Amino acid sequence: MTSAALACPLGLAASAVPGSGAELEREAERDAIAASKRGEREAFDVLVARYQRPIYRLCYRYVNNHDDANDLAQEAFLKAWRAISRFRGDSAFSTWLYRIAVNACLNFRAKRRPETREIDEALVDPRPGAEWHVEREDDAFRVRAAVSRLPDRQRATLILKLFHDLTHEEVAGILGSSVGTVKANLFHALANLRREMTGARETRS
Amino acid sequence: MTAHVSDDAVLDLALGAGTASRRGHAESCEACARRVREAASALELAQRAEVPEPSPFYWQALRHGVSQRIAHEGQETRRSAFLVPLAAAAAVLAVLFSVPALPVKGPLAPGLAAWSALPLEEEDEGLRVLEGLALSSGELAEWDRGEGLSAYLANLTDDESRVLAETLRKRGQGGES
Fold first, then answer.
1. Which of A52, A189, A190, B150 could be A158's S-S partner, Cβ–Cβ 3.0 to 4.6 Å?
2. Residue A136 sits in a domain of what CATH number?
3. What's the whole-number mean pLDDT along residues B23-27?
C-alpha cells in the first residue's frame, strides 16, 4: 500500500503527486481541519461535505435503515466537531473520523439493538448455490439484514474491510485491535453471513 | 503434504492474497480448496449489500442538520458559560445569607418566624391580662399574700378569679377598679 493510501484510506486521494488534484484536496483538507480547530464552522462544513457519503453509508450498513443512519451520521460529525481540537494528526483524518462513527454505531447498537429475528425461512433458498440467483434488490436487502445481525465487532470489521476498502491495518487502527483480531473477525463474519444466507449449518468443525 | 491452511490464510487466499505455498496447498487439498471457495463466495455475497442511494437533496439536508446541531450546541455552551458562574455566585450568596438563619441552640432570636400555639398578639386576651397585671401590680399588692404573683394566681378560687378578671376588665376599659 502506498503512503498516500495509508494517509487517506477512504480512497479520496488516490494519488499524492505534488500539484495534483488529490494533493490539492489534501492540502485543502488540512486547511479545513486547522480552521475547524480554531472553531470556524464553515471550515468544518467542508469536512462534512467531503466525508458525509462514506460516513452515512457506514452507518446505514450498521443499522440498515435511513433514519437511524442519518441520526448516527449527524451524531458522528457532531462528536468530531467537539473533539477536533484534540485531533493531532497521528492518523489520517478519515481514520479518526471512521473511529468516531464506528463508536457511535457500536453505542447505538448497545442502546437500541433491534429485535433479533431470523431470516424469514421463505426468503432462504435451500438449493445449493441458489443464493446467487435471487433478484438483485431483494438480495441486497437480505444481505444487509444479515450483516446487521452479525455480532458488533464482526459487523464493524466486515463493513470497514469490504465496503470501505480499508486494509487490515487500517481496520485494526479504527477498531483499536490487532491485525490478527481483524482477520479472525472477518473470517467469522463471512462464515456467519454465509450461514445466515444459505441457512446451512457450518460443516467445518 | 503440508498442513491445512489457517483461517487467516483462507481469508487471504479468498481476498486474492496469500503466499504461493499456501495457494499451492489449497489447490491440491480439497478441504482447504472448499474453505477458500466458501470464503470467496461469502465475500461476493457481502459485496451485494448495496446501500440505497438517498435523494440528491439529502446530502444538503445532512450538512444542514449537522450545522444546526453544532449551532445549537454552541448556544448551549455560551448559555452554560454565562449561567454556571452566575449559579455559582448565587449559591455562594445563598450560603452566606443563610448562615444567620441556621438553627441555633437556645432561645429563638426575636423577629424570626417560628410556629407557635399561642394566638396572635392582638388576639391574645391572656397577654392583655398580664399587661393589666403589670400595670396594676402595685394596686394588686393587696391581693398578693407573699407567695409570688404566679403562685397567687394559681391559688385563686373561682370566685376570686372572677373578681380579679372583672377588676382588670374595668381597668382595661378605663373604668374604676
1. A189
2. 1.10.10.10
3. 84
Query: What is the residue whose three cell numbers read 429485535?
Result: A115
pLDDT surpasses 50 at A13? no
B10 contacts chain A (CB < 8 A): yes
Three-class SS state of B169: helix
Q: What is the pLDDT of residue A120?
A: 41
The count of structural domains within chain B is 3
Chain A contact set for B45 (CB, 8 A): 131, 143, 193-194, 197
Q: Are residues A81 and A23 in the same domain?
A: yes
Q: What is the pLDDT of residues A62-79, one digit of tens each?
A: 888 899 999 999 999 999
The SS3 of residue B58 is helix
User: What's the number of domains chain A is made of?
Assistant: 2
Domain extent, residue A34, equals 1-114
Average pLDDT of the residues of chain B:
72
Contact A146, A131 (CB under 8 A): no
Q: Are residues A110 and A141 located together in one domain of the fold?
A: no
Residue B131, H or E segment: helix B125-135
Of A45, A187, A194, the CB nearest to B45: A194
* Containing structural domain, residue B159: 121-172
